[in-house]
Amino acid sequence: MARTIIVSNRLPVKVQRDSNGDLQYKPSEGGLATGLGSIYKDGDNVWVGWPGLYFKDKNKAQKAEVTEKLTSENMDPVYLSESEIKLFYEGFSNETLWPTFHYFNQYALYKKSYYEAYKKVNQKYCDAVLELANPDDTIWIHDYQLMLVPDMIRQKLPDASIGFFLHIPFPSFEVFRLLPWRRELLDGVLGSDLVGFHTYDDMRHFLSAVSRICFIGNQQGQITKDRRTIMIDSFPIGIDYDKYANSSAAPSTLSKEVKFRTSMGDQKLMLSIDRLDYSKGIAARLEIFDIFLSKYPEYQNKISLIMVVVPSRDTVEKYKNLKEEVDLLVGRINGKYGSMNWTPIHYFYRSFPLEDLSAFYRMADVALVTPMRDGMNLVCKEYVASKLDKKGVLILSEMAGASKELSEALIVNPNDKHQVVDAIYKALTMPVEEQEKHMAFMQKAIKKFDIHHWVRLFLDRLNSVKEQQKVMGTKVMDDAMEEKVVKEFKSKEKRLLFLDYDGTLVPFNSDPKEAKPDKDLKTLLSKLTADKNTNVVIISGRDKDTLQKWLGDLDVEFVGEHGVWLKMRGEDWKTIDSLDDSWKDAIRPILEMYTDKTPRSFIEEKDYSLVWHYRQVETGLGELRAREIISHLKYLSSNMNLEVLEGNKVVEIKNLEINKGKATSRWADTKNKNNFIFAVGDDWTDEDTFKAMPKHACTIKVGDLRSAAKYSVKDHLAVRELLSLMANS
CA dist 499 to 158, 281, 354, 648, Å? Predict the structure, then answer.
């Protein structure tokens, strides 16, 4: 039976030692453990991850106890050494990836020892999965600590269903490119079938990095790598709405609220909850509160900030310094404005149980959630879900992923301190009716798109992508299919082969003029045409003069310029229709304009078409200019009876009535079912050829599986191999 295997750095249970050295098992904090709880506990599903504790050799008995306990609860522990925790987790994950992905690259450390440990530990997780996984299992890998794992598993289980989700922001290409191991990380993630992010921006940045670093483009978020379709999409994570709403209504929460309100007095309350981290903007938030009290002195003695900072890595120098800065700011503000009966900031450097947090959420008139950069930030969603009376205002940083969903909040730029100050004043003076309106809108969205919806959506999409791959995979030509095609070729009296040239018989070249046929290709074509019953038609977008020069000495026929020119055996070159090329005078200046502002691009002029080449242009810029050209020419071409074609690093403009499909119909043999008809090509312009072929024809697409062709092969070498089998049959 198919299972779901969840893989993350940490397990949903944290193992700790108490003061006596005895083991304790505590549920991990966070929405992920909650959301995936119902998944990993179901049937034979399993969660793979680190239990949060390392064991020395003398602790073998405890280690065995932990393994037995966790295994009985559908968890498979991956044990890390003290050194691995230091280099992999504290090192590469949190000293290299974390600052880079959060745009604090000035803090990033690029140490080879960190990356080697990261690679080693990722392999450890991969091995743990391989020991468990069956071919039909679904494997869902989480977050930045395990970016290499998808491809590691893919290498061993090529048909596995693998999903990956990144829970932190993905930076722009300009920031991501700073990483020395950028290509390895992207290749690792692209081992997945479905890659998920919190926001469209993160998805867009990832696709840009893949394009610029791996030189792989995308179509509506779909990437084709190793002839496998990978879907990239955004899936904003939610919270367990009912959990927070029910906790907010619980009697224990209400009694806590009464206790807290009594101790704080009759104050307006603002709430801030964060883990200690430089990406959260805690120090800046304190400075903002200082400015607010100075700018609006009427709120002195009338408002307090409840600031909860959850301890995190405070032995690390940067975090230790951050804590000291926060401590000093809190002390300075309280000393500057405080009085015997009023404390401006109630500062707690610790975590709280849910009932305490729910009481804080209920009490807070304003929630101040202003990280400098955050993947999602669930505190703001928890606050909204806890507001049963719908009274309260959320101030939310535009740098948090949640801002894309919670547009009814007061959205601010955390770097603009005075804007945030003004937002605080607006929040405190907002009419109750307006508060209720905004809160109701946000609650409706959060309730609908909760954590359970997120889990279902991702897994359903992964299943859909896998099903699509399976359908497309039936096209991949294997040995049996090859044997069948060769056998059919051999059995027929007459054979007609339509062979595309660039990308099909020869590889692409950065200089199109250098893509000349090599000796092996010419020998192969000579062998095929040596049999008078085999007719070979070279069908290409190249001009007739080039085709004649390169292959004119062979007994082959030609279709040139996508169907403008034809050359049959014993005949001269001729055009298929009476064509007009006067349109070039209107189109050429437009292409020249784009060529002038795109270094290393150039225009190729054929008899009845113009081609703009950008194979040598900087990745990204060429694609951008191609989009601009196509958009620019779209209106003109329709009025001038022209067609704009986008090929492999080219944009071609030609007469509308010309295409490869129409040209192939000139060979009457295509109507004879007793003949063997074969067509192969790599470009989307070859789709016209495939569609023009009779049903019994053998059609093959090179590279892409998404095609009207019946079969698909990997590259030009596979085409030559198949043609060689035909020639020698």
Answer: 31, 61, 68, 17
